[in-house]
């Protein structure tokens, strides 16, 4: 309920107002609340409060409050400025006084929203800035209007609160200023300590040279490390004594060098003649450096601060890069570099051999991709495989029919490898091109001759065998024996032809690598050989509790068959052949031993010397085939000298686990090496 007060009490309330504002033992907020309480009592309303205003954010916040107005005014409450009573107060030059808000035209919405029946508000300003409003409110309307004395008293309270707020702000700013000064001084002190610490711990050599004496006034630990002198020994040393190429008594050269270092936009690493800028080490060596320098003014005079950085490793890298550049430029293989991520992977580099190989000038290919080498007979499947690998960022090699600038076709062995940045992203592709036209021509010729000879050999041997059989059946004695010899020789030639064909097939299709059980493979081979040599004693034995699987192709069984069959054939009809499967540190071994006359020297040469010379006579082709297969899966086939008679061949195979760890697939070994 509002209470009407007599203006005769105004002087009494003014004294109370001055008293509460003069109380220094309480906080600013407590003094402002006490002033609001005096005003609230004088005006006879439920509540007095100060609201802070933010025009830019259309925000009103109840800053301090006193009295009862639950549900109408709550300290800390935030509301929209636009629909508040305070908004209207700020638009007036005098206090806004409304004793009966519900009866005021146009105030229905504000009254419905806020529930304030009477309101007396004054704007609070601090200098040119609006702080907020000082408001006295009641939920009920007053029976009479606010008098001039009441409005004046409200303004008095507002001006008093403004002075308190301004004084507090001034004190705060004064404290902030003092704190800022203290902070700057502390920062300056910390900065000086930090600078000294940074100079001392900096990885680069830093020296301070007195411009009057041209001697070092200070030097950090890195400078001592760079020169080999102790820090204390560097101080008072003439800087000219430390720089190679500057004589101690050559003032002109020294002055020009200092001026050049100071005037440079960045570090300097060479003299005007291009020779490297070097620092003389205590041991007499010269260290290449780059130097940055600047004039500095200190309390006791003028100095030059110089920062030296050892560029030995950089120069080594530069020399290495120059070497690599020369190697690429002079390589006898075409080399290109293409930028990844672009639509067509344009070339950014091509070496001279590429231009010689293709006939295109370097300027004609930069910015284009290698598709310019393709033509009407280029195999689309091959180029698609290249494109898929490049798209996936994987290395790839293909033989592609390309065309030179003049239209001449040539076979190009293309190898493309992705280049990754530090984050693992593909940034470029490097391509290698090698002309393999002559090799492809020879391969084609050999293939044609091979087919013709094999076809004619089979047909002609059929005729020879027929005539030999006729001689053997129609005649007796030496003629019949000659017929049998002819027939046997023909059979051997046909078998030799078939074995050569098998070798060709193995070379063309080595098979897919997979885990193989060596014991199972050996047992299968022995069963097959027993069928051919039923009188022979052939057995398999395992010399280990467990034999791990090996990583090989389906050709492995053919290789072991050739070795076991060779042993049974040369040992005789009733021979003894033992196959032992064992393990050692290198993997799995399959040892095949017989009691025959021993391996002929020409067949031993196939394995010991890795020589193909005996094959010219057709001898040892089976062992050659076995050796080809075994070495193709990263294994070995060698002759082991037995203690007694006979022959022992050992097949060394790597386990699947070893291969998976090392490469993930078989790595072929070299053959055809002569001792």
UniProtKB/TrEMBL annotation:
<dbReference type="Pfam" id="PF02518">
    <property type="entry name" value="HATPase_c"/>
</dbReference>
<feature type="domain" description="PAC">
    <location>
        <begin position="273"/>
        <end position="323"/>
    </location>
</feature>
<dbReference type="InterPro" id="IPR036890">
    <property type="entry name" value="HATPase_C_sf"/>
</dbReference>
<dbReference type="Pfam" id="PF01590">
    <property type="entry name" value="GAF"/>
</dbReference>
<feature type="domain" description="Histidine kinase">
    <location>
        <begin position="452"/>
        <end position="657"/>
    </location>
</feature>
<feature type="domain" description="PAS">
    <location>
        <begin position="191"/>
        <end position="265"/>
    </location>
</feature>
<keyword id="KW-0175">Coiled coil</keyword>
<dbReference type="InterPro" id="IPR000014">
    <property type="entry name" value="PAS"/>
</dbReference>
<dbReference type="Pfam" id="PF13426">
    <property type="entry name" value="PAS_9"/>
</dbReference>
<feature type="coiled-coil region">
    <location>
        <begin position="167"/>
        <end position="201"/>
    </location>
</feature>
<dbReference type="GO" id="GO:0016772">
    <property type="term" value="F:transferase activity, transferring phosphorus-containing groups"/>
</dbReference>
<keyword id="KW-0157">Chromophore</keyword>
<protein>
    <submittedName>
        <fullName>PAS domain S-box protein</fullName>
    </submittedName>
</protein>
<dbReference type="InterPro" id="IPR001610">
    <property type="entry name" value="PAC"/>
</dbReference>
<keyword id="KW-0288">FMN</keyword>
<dbReference type="InterPro" id="IPR003594">
    <property type="entry name" value="HATPase_dom"/>
</dbReference>
<dbReference type="InterPro" id="IPR029016">
    <property type="entry name" value="GAF-like_dom_sf"/>
</dbReference>
<dbReference type="InterPro" id="IPR035965">
    <property type="entry name" value="PAS-like_dom_sf"/>
</dbReference>
<feature type="domain" description="PAS">
    <location>
        <begin position="347"/>
        <end position="368"/>
    </location>
</feature>
<dbReference type="InterPro" id="IPR005467">
    <property type="entry name" value="His_kinase_dom"/>
</dbReference>
<dbReference type="InterPro" id="IPR003018">
    <property type="entry name" value="GAF"/>
</dbReference>
<feature type="domain" description="PAC">
    <location>
        <begin position="394"/>
        <end position="448"/>
    </location>
</feature>
<dbReference type="InterPro" id="IPR004358">
    <property type="entry name" value="Sig_transdc_His_kin-like_C"/>
</dbReference>
<keyword id="KW-0285">Flavoprotein</keyword>
<dbReference type="InterPro" id="IPR000700">
    <property type="entry name" value="PAS-assoc_C"/>
</dbReference>
